[in-house]
Amino acid sequence: MAEADGVVAVGGRLTPPWLLDAYAHGIFPWPMFYETEILVWFSPDPRGIFELDGFRASRRLLRTIRRGKFEVTCDRDFAGVIRGCASVRREGGGTWITPAMIRAYCQMHALGHAHSVEVWHEGTLAGGTYGVALGGMYAGESMFYRETDASKVAIYHLIRHLRSRGYRLFDIQQLTQHTKSLGAIEIPRSQYLRRLVEAIRQPVTWGEQLQSGVEGAVTT
Q1: Which of 14, 24, 97, 101 has a CA-to-CA distance to 86 between 20 and 30 Å?
Q2: Average pLDDT of every residue of the chain
Q3: Contact status, residue 5 vs residue 172, Cβ threshold 8 Å
Q4: What digits encode the pLDDT tens for the residues 180-212?
Q5: Helix spans in 111-188 (H)
Q6: If you average pLDDT over residues 146-157, what whole number do you get?
């Protein structure tokens, strides 16, 4: 029932029950205007995803990981990551990660539904990414960096973690030139929804630790 641009509904509430029900049906919130925080719910067609064996890591990125320049953790500073993502200015100079979104996803994190991957350099948060986990589906929401390659390092380790834990679907909602360069693809919404139903049935848990080192299987 989505419109051509993927809009499903306008309004609603940013509460865990609303958010979990939305993600279970392939829908996500996206405030359209920072000043008014008008809440719009989307289910775009096509849908952007990372196949968990399709990440493309450059030789430079792998050298950076091997050198140990960064420390990578998970769920150590969720609030810092989402605020870092909110600080990134999008086209038009605003951000879709409003204060209400930050509060809602921090609440989701406190309940164990949202997770972050942090990348640290010399004890300072240098980049990261966050998203929502539901069964064997992980919905990546945003990423940021303050040091070159920090967001790529976060995605690299996130994908390794998802694979090791048995996740089936890594949703990124919409494809961008940046994620495309890393190996992300688009699939029809109908295919995405079929895969979503199967993924959320999986008895998968997030876990507490990320794997260290470099895994050649996810590089090209």
Answers
A1: 24
A2: 91
A3: no
A4: 999 999 999 999 999 999 999 999 999 987 865
A5: 150-165, 177-181
A6: 97
Of the CA atoms within 13 Å of residue 81, those in its CB half-sphere come to 29
Measured from the Cβ of residue 204, the count of other Cβ atoms closer than 10 Å reads: 19
Is the pTM here over 0.90, yes or no? yes
**Rounded distance between C-alpha atoms, residue 51 and residue 163, angstroms:** 10
Token pair for 178: 């940046």
Q: Which residues have C-beta within 8 Å of that of residue 36, sequence separation ≥ 6?
A: none
- Give, for 74, the enclosing helix (H) or strand (E): strand 71-74
Highest CATH level, class, for 46-218: alpha beta
Say which residues have a Cβ less than 8 Å from residue 34's Cβ, sequence separation at least 6.
94, 95, 96, 98
The one-letter code for the residue type at 192 is Y
SS3 letters for 175-204?
CCHHHHHCCCEEECHHHHHHHHHHHHCCCC
